[in-house]
Design goal:
By secondary structure, the protein is α/β, with parallel strands linked by helices. About 45% of the residues lie in helices and about 15% in strands. Strands 3, 4, 5, 6, 7, 8, 9, 10, 13 and 14 form a ten-stranded mixed β-sheet that branches. A two-stranded antiparallel sheet has the order 1-2. It is elongated and about 120 Å long. One of its GO terms (molecular function) is alpha-1,4-glucan glucosyltransferase (ADP-glucose donor) activity.
Length: about 475
């Protein structure tokens, strides 16, 4: 018993039923028992670890597939973005090249047009100044005598006018007047001042050959040193885009018609380097607010109003042209009006030139119609004046233009008149010393030179009258 007490013991208590058994195990038995227990616990842990590993593998497998899908999609997106970037760079290079080509073309066009601009600058500035002087007179800023001096001053500086300060042209009339007075005197102008009173001018309004004739002749004469301007009705069908610097004179310009004074709106601008004035009736606004230029029962009334309004405007603005150039029957009434009404209104040095392009329409009207524009019908209804040669009860407006003009240019196919002109043969025979003949067209340089020479000869002969 004492020996047994010195041994390490483990009490093993097992319960079976109602009895108990006690076993005493030595160290060897203890080790074996512990090993058994460890193996038993390790087996369970191993099985648990195997089960956990299988579950993890099942869970991670779809995650790995998603990652690879995301990776492949990212690669595809990167490739697409790279392709888009390369395409954008290529397009940018293309646009840059096109831009450089466009800039180069713009520079070329600017260089090409610079010569034209330099040529146009003189006439544009010249006419801007002359038309602003008209505005000064109508608005009462300067008198007629001073206006005459200022116009002469501008004309004498024509070759040097392009150096006039352009910023001043954007200011008021007073500033322009002050700048003109300070402008240096360097060159002299020796040309004629010609005013066309007409019903057509290309490219503003064109019906027949008169339109291109006015434009080409004006440009030719201005190239020869003449100062040329044009007065037109302000038709509602005018191509206003062709007018440079269009502006309305802010003052009423009155003209006589049918026993009363009527207001007109006056517009100024430049067309092909030629100064253009447009007259727009206020009360009789419907006269030129129509679809067609000609062909109405009141054509005489319309163009008689315009002719009288043109002369009233010229007289009021203080213009003193060397020649009033009128055309066909539509403005032929200017001849009688000038000599009977306007010659003593500061226009003593002005002369009348009539151009006849066609004789089919002569403007046959009752004599009393002349009173609409202020003429004495009884004094003019005579055979040596406006009475028609074959129909004595009417007056012939074209005949009146021939009788009252200082010179007459017949547009013909040759140097002599090869066609008959019913009703006007005797009138032309009486006034044969007035006649000049010019080519009907100006389609080539020879015809242009001939036409220009004829008109220069006509103007020169008028100057010597």
């Amino acid at each position: 018993m004492l020996a047994a007490a010195n041994l390490p013991v483990i009490w093993n208590l097992s319960l079976y039923g109602s009895s108990s058994t006690f076993q005493l195990l030595n160290t060897k038995h203890q080790k074996a028992y512990a090993l058994h227990c460890m193996r038993s616990d390790g087996h369970e842990e191993f099985e648990n670890s195997q089960e956990n590993l299988g579950l993890s593998s099942v869970t991670k497998e779809p995650k790995q597939k998603d990652i690879w899908n995301f990776f492949r999609e990212a690669q595809q997106n990167i490739l697409f973005i790279n392709k888009q970037r390369l395409a954008a760079v290529e397009e940018l290079e293309k646009l840059k090249k096109e831009k450089d080509e466009l800039l180069e073309r713009i520079n070329q066009l600017e260089e090409e047009t610079q010569i034209v601009i330099k040529k146009a600058d003189k006439s544009s500035v010249l006419w801007e100044l002359l038309l602003r002087i008209d505005s000064m007179v109508i608005n009462g800023l300067i008198g007629i005598d001073e206006a005459y001096t200022m116009r002469k001053f501008v004309k004498e500086h024509q070759s040097n006018i392009s150096v006039f300060p352009l910023d001043v042209l954007q200011q008021g009339d007073a500033e322009i007047l002050a700048a003109l007075r300070r402008f240096p005197n360097k060159t002299k102008w020796n040309g004629f001042h010609v005013i066309h009173i007409c019903t057509e001018m290309a490219p503003l309004v064109s019906v027949g050959p008169l339109a291109s004739y006015i434009r080409q002749l004006s440009c030719l004469l201005q190239g020869e040193g003449y100062l040329v301007e044009v007065i037109l009705p302000k038709y509602s069908t005018l191509d206003m885009d062709e007018i440079e610097g269009l502006q309305e004179i802010e003052a009423d310009a009155y003209s006589y018609y049918n026993g009363q004074l009527h207001a007109n709106r006056i517009w100024n601008g430049v067309v092909s380097g030629i100064g253009v004035t447009l007259i727009q009736p206020v009360y009789y606004s419907s006269m030129f607010n129509r679809d067609e230029v000609y062909g109405y029962p009141d054509d005489f009334d319309r163009f008689a109003y315009f002719s009288r309004a043109s002369l009233d405007y010229i007289a009021k603005s203080g213009k003193q042209p060397d020649v009033l150039h009128i055309h066909n029957w539509q403005t032929a009434i200017v001849g009688p009006l000038f000599w009977d009404v306007f010659v003593n209104q500061g226009l003593e040095g002005t002369r009348i030139l009539l151009t006849c392009q066609e004789f089919d329409s002569k403007g046959l009207v009752p004599p009393e119609k002349l009173e609409l524009c202020g003429l004495d019908s009884a004094a003019l209804h005579r055979l040596d004046r406006l009475q028609d040669n074959t129909k004595p009860h009417v007056v012939n407006i074209l005949k009146g233009g021939i009788v009252y003009s200082n010179k007459v240019i017949i547009m013909s196919e040759g140097r002599t008149l090869h066609r008959s002109i019913p009703g006007l043969e005797s009138t032309l025979a009486i006034h044969k010393d007035k006649l000049f003949f010019a080519p009907f067209g100006m389609d080539n340089s020879m015809e242009k030179d001939l036409c220009c020479d004829v008109h220069v000869s006509a103007y020169t002969s008028i100057k010597n009258l």
